[in-house]
Write a structure and sequence with these properties.
CATH class of chain A: Mainly Alpha
Order of helices and strands of chain A: HEEHHHHHHHHHHHH
Order of helices and strands of chain B: EEEHEEEHHHEHEHEEHHEHEEEEEEE
Strand order of the largest sheet of chain A: 1-2
CATH superfamily of chain A: MetI-like
Strand content of chain A: under 5%
Distance between the termini of chain B: 39 Å
Number of strands of chain B: 18
Structural class of chain B: alpha+beta
Shape of chain A: flat
Bound molecules: adenosine-5'-diphosphate, magnesium ion
Helix content of chain B: 25-40%
Number of helices of chain B: 9
Radius of gyration of chain A: 24 Å
Strand order of the largest sheet of chain B: 6-7-8-3-9-10
Oligomer: heterodimer
CATH topology of chain A: MetI-like fold
Number of domains of chain A: 1
Strand content of chain B: 25-35%
CATH architecture of the largest domain in chain B: 3-Layer(aba) Sandwich
Distance between the termini of chain A: 25 Å
Number of strands of chain A: 2
Structural class of chain A: mainly alpha
CATH architecture of chain A: Orthogonal Bundle
Largest sheet of chain A: 2 strands, antiparallel
CATH superfamily of the largest domain in chain B: P-loop containing nucleotide triphosphate hydrolases
Helix content of chain A: over 70%
Shape of chain B: globular
Largest interface: A-B, 18 and 24 residues
Number of domains of chain B: 2
C-alpha cells in the first residue's frame, strides 16, 4: 500500500543514492564544460585563461573532425549491420537441435570474454599481419600477394575486429528471444502454407524485433566510444583513416597536450551521441513498448 | 471432400511407442471426436494427420491419395491449436488473411472471404485489433476464422475450448457445431472432456495409451461400451462398476450400472446403503451411497425432490436390462 506518507518516506530514503549518482555525473560534466572554454595546454602550465568559443571553433573546423565523424558513424553502422545480421543467422543455427549443442553455445560466447586490447592485438599480429599473420601465410599458400589489412583497409579491419567481439552478444540475446517464440505459431504458419523463408520473415523477424532493438541500443552506446582497438592496431592512421571521435579527442588532449581543445571535443561528442540516441529512439524505440 | 484413412499408422518418439499400429477411417463430412485421458496420444494422432509429425510407419490417405509424405500445407487441412497460435504482431484481419496471402489468393477474393468469415464469427468490429487486445473467446474465433478462409477439406481442432471458462465453452461448442452443420466439412476434434465428445460428435474414437478402445456414435458408446474402460470413461457421472458376489450372480467378473439406471427408495430394494454426499443440480440429485457392500461408493441419480438426508438408509434397485457385464479381460460379455 503506497500511502502518501510511505511515498514521501520512500523518496527521502532513496535521495542519498540519487544525489550521489547525480553528483557523480554532474561534476565531471561541469569540469569538462569548464575546461572547454579555457585555453589550457599542458605544455604551458599556469597560463590558463578564458577563451570563449575558440576551442570549439578550432575543433569543429578541423578537417580531422569531419573524417572522425564519418569514421565513427561507419564504425557504429558497420558493426551493427554485421552483428545483427550475423547474430540472427547464428542464433537460427544454434536454435537447431544438434549434437554438442551445449558446448558449442558456450564456445560462441567466448570472444565476448576476451579483453578488447588483447583481441585486437591477436587479430593484428596473428591474423592480419602480412608477414607473420595466418592470412598472409594463406595468401602465400595460394600464390597471392599478402594483403596488409591494417594499412590498406584500416577502418574495415577495425570494423571486422569489433564485430568479432560483439557478435556473441548479439547472438546470445537473439538466441534467447528465438527460444521464447511459441512453436505452435511456427506450426500454424507451416499449416497455413508459409515456406521456411516466409516463416522467418513473417513470424520470426517480428518476434525478434524487440531483441534486435535492445541489441542495437546497447551496442551503439559502447560502439560510439571504441578506443582500445584503434589504439593498439592502427593508432588512428594512416592519416585519419581510422580515427573516430573518441580517438580524435585523445589525440587532441593527450598527444597535443591541449586539454581545452580535447574538452571541447568531448562536449561535441556528448551532443552527437545524444543526437544519435534521439534518432535511434525515434526510429526503433516503439519496438520496446509492450 | 475430406475422407481420411489411417492405415496401420504407428508413431514412436525414440524408444517410446506412443501410437501402436492403428487403423481408422474418417468419412467425408463427419464430425469425429478423439477422446481419452491426458497423455493418451490424441494430440500426437492429430499432428500425424496434420503432417506436423512424421509417421514412424503406416500410411495416411486423404481422399484416397497417399499423403504420408506430403508437407502440412499440401494436405489441405486446417488446424486450430489449443493456444490459438495467433500471430501476435498482426491485426485480426492480417491473421485471417495470412493463409490466403501465402496461397496467393487475389486481394478482392481475400477481402470477400475475410468479411464473410468475420460476419459469421462476430468479429467484424475487431478486425483491426491485435490478438492481445481480444478476450479468450474472441481469439478462439479468430483462430477458427483463419482456418475457415482456407476452405480446407477437413478441420483439425486440438482441445480448442480448454482455455475458456465454462460458460464460454458451452457457447463456443454450439458455434462449432453450427459451423459444422453449415459447412458440412469433415472435422476432427480432440478433447479429454467426455461431455464435449458426447454432445458434439457424429463418431467418437475413444483412445487409451495410443490404442483405439472403441469407435462409435455417442449413443452406441453409451449403451454398448465394448469394455470396462469405455464404460467408465463415457457418461457423467461415471458408471458404477463392481465385482464380487453381485457380479457372479449375473454370471460376470464385473458388472456395471449407470447412476441413472438405479432406482432409489426409502423402503425396499435389492441393495441397501447409507446416503453420503448429495449433489443437487435442481432437476436431478446425485447421491453418493456408502456401505452397500458393492463398492466404496455407488452413485445414484434420483429425483431432485427425493427427501433423503446425509446418514439416512436407502434402498437401491438396478434396472436389470441396463446392466453391463464384463469378462475377466474387461471385455463386454
Ligand atoms: N515430441 C515428443 N517427444 C517425446 N514424447 C512425446 C512428444 N510428444 C508427445 N510425447 C509423448 O506422447 C504421449 C502422448 O502425448 P499427446 O499426444 O500430447 O497426449 P494427449 O494430447 O492425448 O494428452 C505422451 O506420453 C507424451 O509424453
Ligand atoms: Mg494434447
Amino acid at each position: 500500500m503506497a500511502t502518501q506518507h510511505s511515498r514521501a518516506a520512500a523518496r527521502l530514503m532513496i535521495s542519498p543514492a540519487v544525489l550521489l549518482l547525480l553528483g557523480w555525473m554532474i561534476v565531471p560534466l561541469v569540469m569538462t564544460l569548464y575546461f572547454s572554454f579555457l585555453r589550457y595546454n599542458l605544455l604551458m602550465p599556469g597560463m590558463e585563461e578564458f577563451t570563449g568559443w575558440t576551442n570549439y571553433r578550432f575543433f569543429l573546423t578541423d578537417p580531422a573532425f569531419f573524417d572522425a565523424l564519418g569514421n565513427t558513424l561507419l564504425l557504429v553502422g558497420g558493426v551493427l549491420l554485421i552483428t545483427v545480421i550475423g547474430g540472427t543467422l547464428l542464433a537460427l543455427l544454434l536454435d537447431q537441435p544438434f549434437w554438442g549443442q551445449g558446448v558449442v553455445r558456450i564456445m560462441v560466447i567466448a570472444p565476448f570474454f576476451v579483453m578488447p586490447t588483447v583481441s585486437a592485438l591477436v587479430w593484428k599480429n596473428m591474423f592480419m599481419n602480412p608477414v607473420n599473420g595466418l592470412f598472409g601465410h594463406f595468401a602465400h599458400f595460394l600464390g597471392l600477394e599478402p594483403y596488409d589489412f591494417l594499412s590498406q583497409a584500416p577502418l574495415a579491419s577495425i570494423i571486422f575486429i569489433v564485430s568479432w567481439q560483439w557478435l556473441p552478444f548479439a547472438t546470445l540475446i537473439l538466441l534467447t528471444a528465438l527460444q521464447s517464440l511459441d512453436q505452435e505459431q511456427l506450426e500454424a504458419a507451416e499449416m497455413d502454407g508459409a515456406s521456411a523463408l516466409s516463416r522467418f520473415y513473417y513470424i520470426m523477424v517480428p518476434h525478434l524485433s524487440r531483441a534486435i532493438t535492445v541489441v542495437i541500443l546497447i551496442q551503439t552506446i559502447f560502439l560510439l566510444s571504441i578506443f582500445a582497438e584503434i589504439l593498439v592496431t592502427t593508432a588512428g592512421g594512416p592519416g585519419t583513416a581510422s580515427t573516430n571521435l573518441t580517438y580524435l579527442i585523445y589525440v587532441q588532449s593527450l598527444l597535443q597536450f591541449d586539454v581545452g581543445g580535447g574538452s571541447a571535443g568531448g562536449v561535441v561528442a556528448i551532443i552527437l551521441a545524444n543526437i544519435v540516441a534521439i534518432f535511434l529512439m525515434r526510429m526503433i524505440g516503439k519496438n520496446l513498448d509492450a | 471432400m475430406g475422407r481420411i484413412t489411417l492405415d496401420k499408422v504407428t508413431k514412436s518418439f525414440g524408444e517410446v511407442n506412443v501410437i501402436p499400429p492403428l487403423d481408422l477411417t474418417i468419412n467425408d463430412g463427419e464430425f469425429v471426436v478423439f477422446v481419452g485421458p491426458s497423455g493418451c496420444g490424441k494430440s500426437t494422432l492429430l499432428r500425424l494427420i496434420a503432417g506436423l509429425e512424421d509417421v514412424t510407419s503406416g500410411q495416411i490417405r486423404i481422399d484416397g491419395k497417399d499423403a504420408t509424405q506430403q508437407a502440412p500445407a499440401q494436405r489441405g487441412l486446417a488446424m486450430v491449436f489449443q493456444s490459438y497460435a495467433l500471430y501476435p504482431h498482426m491485426s485480426v484481419r492480417k491473421n485471417i488473411a495470412f493463409p490466403m496471402k501465402m496461397a496467393g489468393v487475389p486481394e478482392d477474393e481475400q477481402k470477400r472471404r475475410i468479411d464473410s468469415a468475420a460476419a459469421a464469427l462476430n468479429l467484424t468490429d475487431y478486425l483491426d485489433r491485435r490478438p492481445g487486445q481480444l478476450s479468450g473467446g474472441q481469439r478462439q474465433r479468430v483462430a477458427i476464422g483463419r482456418a475457415i478462409v482456407r476452405e480446407p477439406s477437413a478441420f483439425l481442432f486440438d482441445e480448442p475450448l480448454s482455455n475458456l471458462d465454462a460458460a464460454l465453452r458451452v457457447g463456443m461448442r454450439l458455434e462449432i457445431m453450427e459451423l459444422h452443420k453449415r459447412l458440412a466439412t469433415t472435422m476432427i476434434y480432440v478433447t479429454h472432456d467426455q461431455v464435449e465428445a458426447m454432445t458434439m460428435a457424429d463418431k467418437i474414437v475413444v483412445l487409451r495409451a495410443g490404442n483405439i478402445e472403441q469407435v462409435g456414435s455417442p449413443l452406441e458408446l453409451y449403451h454398448t461400451p465394448r469394455n470396462e474402460f469405455v464404460a467408465g470413461f463415457i457418461g457423467s457421472p461415471k458408471m458404477n462398476i463392481f465385482g464380487g458376489n453381485p457380479a457372479q450372480q449375473h454370471g460376470a467378473t464385473k458388472i456395471g450400472i449407470r447412476p441413472e439406471h438405479i432406482a432409489a427408495s426409502t423402503e425396499t430394494g435389492t441393495w441397501s446403503g447409507v446416503v453420503g454426499v448429495a449433489e443437487h443440480l435442481g432437476s436431478d440429485t446425485f447421491l453418493h451411497v456408502h456401505e452397500t457392500g458393492l463398492a466404496e461408493t455407488v452413485t445414484v441419480r434420483v429425483d431432485g425432490e427425493l427427501p433423503v438426508r446425509h446418514g439416512d438408509r436407502i434402498f437401491l434397485s438396478p434396472d436389470e436390462s441396463k446392466l453391463h457385464r464384463f469378462s475377466e479381460q474387461g471385455l463386454r460379455a
